[in-house]
Design a protein that fits this description.
The chain is mostly helical and 461 residues long. Helices cover 71% and strands 3% of the residues. Strand 1 and strand 2 (408-413) form a beta hairpin. Helix 4 (75-118) packs parallel to helix 12 (312-323) and helix 5 packs across helix 15. Keywords: Cell membrane, Membrane, Transmembrane, Transmembrane helix.
Amino acid sequence: MSDPRPEPPDGARPGDVIALRQAARTWFAISLQTFGGPAGQIAVMQRTLVDEKRWIGQQRFLFALSYCTLLPGPEAQQLATYVGWLLNGVRGALVAGILFILPGVVALLALSGIYVAFGDTTLVESLFLGLAPAVIAIVLQAVVKVASRGLTHPALVAMAVAAFVALTFFGVPFPVVIALVAPLGWWLGRAVPTLTTPKAAPVDDGPAPLISDDALHAERPSGRRAALTLGVGLLLWGAPVALAALVLGRSSVYVDQGLFFAGTALVTFGGAYAVLAFVAQQAVAVYGWLAPGEMVRGLALAESTPGPLVMVVQFVAFLGAYRAPGVLDPWVAAVVASLLVTWVTFVPCFLFILLGAPYVERLRGNRAISSALTGITAAVVGVIGSLAVYFALHTLFAERVRVTDGPLDLELPVLGSVQWVALGITLVGAGLVFGRGWSVLRTLGACALLGVVVGLLRAAV
């Protein structure tokens, strides 16, 4: 590998690949285009950073993506943080990671407030009449995309099916599923080495990237740096929750939400889809922050805003705190809880990159990480499939029954309670996504419009 980086351009500090101001403008522009989940977000960064600006080489970009996919948390946001670190060090990582989520945080905070204020009106109810069924089609599309990319061996298909069955029929916790499949994937990666070989997309000839595929990052790992990063990161991560406990009491909703979503941030392998079934079950059945149908509505809002889909946790926190504000005004409580949960969800994302990236840069070519990822990717397919079942049950049927018999633990629909309008809009959404190839945002818009029309016609009758 070559070392070190090329001389910094005008306006850049020593060690920077480009000027931080220029990078910030680009990251903000990217953040406004990050609709459609991780696939769309990664595609925007590929086009902007690799193909157009030539800031990073294709193989280097794919390696960073592979590491971020292995981590818990939203891989697209972590990829932006990683590339920001490659370009401008710690400052660049913070700028890239924060700007990547900032528009979505603001938009979802506003939409959550609108939902609380006007959620019972005919117009808003009609809007969700279209949005919630569309989410089912979008989640099914995610299953197909992840399966086509990740299930390249019969053993991986079997692992995906096993994960789906464990979650859907036996209620096995999501973290347990991940803990079981990761070592299996590592073993399979060793037995079939070609499974972990990255498939690079061809890039048109052009100027050499500023960060070439074989360049070695200038920042070297050290025990002192790791200890300082870990100490500061853990302090920043836990400080808001500790402050809430001191000021508002351990039993307050803010501490419950902070601790729950801090823990969730550590097991969110495979992105938002992979953990939302777990979050929905806990938020509805255990804590009572939401009604079952509201989780689907929150995901619909998160789908319609830029940024990672895991931002749906902001909606969960907003509603939960608004309904149990304690000593605070309900609106103040909702905003405080929303920002607190956003903080505890994303601080680990920065910590994983800033702590691990210097070491990972020295381990490029090592197959151990990719091998473990093989099993996790396979399980994610089953997890997303389980999420699709959960959303379908709570959107398409008004009544459900829970069946428990020994290890069996599943929810079944009451067929006579089918919601025909929701089923019809789901089929329309599936036709637009799979048949017409429409984007997520365009599909949501069309289904939302259809829901508004049907809802207003109902009200007029």
